[in-house]
Amino acid sequence: MGLSAGVRGLNRPRRTPNHRTKSHVVVTRCHGKLKTIRFGQQGVRGAGAHPTGAREKARRRAFKARHAANIRKGPCSAAYWANKVKW
Questions:
Q1: Cβ(79)–Cβ(73) under 8 Å?
Q2: Residue 30, beta-bridge partner list
Q3: CA Rg value for the chain
Q4: Which residues touch 23 (CB under 8 Å, ≥6 apart)?
Q5: What residues contact 54, with CB distance under 8 A and at least 6 apart?
Q6: Which of 8, 11, 52, 67 is the most buried (most CB within 10 A)?
Q7: What percent of the chain has pLDDT over 70?
Q8: Cα dihedral angle (18, 14, 38, 52), rounded to 10 degrees?
Q9: Could you give the C-alpha distances from 37 to 21, 28, 61, in angstroms and in order?
Q10: What confidence score (pLDDT) does residue 3 get?
C-alpha cells in the first residue's frame, strides 16, 4: 500500500512544520479509498487538550461547539482529526 504525504501508516497523524498553512496531515481510508487530510492552523499557540486558564478553556469549548457537526462525521473529516490531535 503506497501512502502519500510521508506518513507511516493509516490513521497516524504527522506534523507538517514546513507546510504553508496546515500543521498536520493524516492518511485515512474513506469509502474504500485512501484520502489525505490536512488539518490544523500552522503556528497556533495556546491550543491543547489540557487548558490551564479560563480563556484557554473557553477557546476549547468554542472550537468543539463550532465544529461539532463535522467532528461527528468521523475520520473522513479534518475537524475530527483536529479535535483528536490538537484539542
A1: yes
A2: 33
A3: 14
A4: 15, 16, 17, 39, 40, 41, 42, 43, 44, 86
A5: none
A6: 67
A7: 92
A8: -90
A9: 13, 8, 23
A10: 67
Distance CA 85, CA 40 (A): 9
> Residues of the chain whose pLDDT is less than 50?
1
Number of neighbours of residue 72 by Cβ within 10 angstroms: 10
Cell numbers that stand for 45 in this block? 499557540
- Average pLDDT of the chain is 90
Q: Looking at the whole model, is its pTM more than 0.85? A: yes
User: C-alpha cell of 49?
Assistant: 487538550
Q: How far apart are alpha carbons 82 and 6 in whole angstroms?
A: 19
Tell me the Ramachandran region of residue 23: left when phi exceeds 0, alpha when psi lies from -120 to 50, beta otherwise: alpha
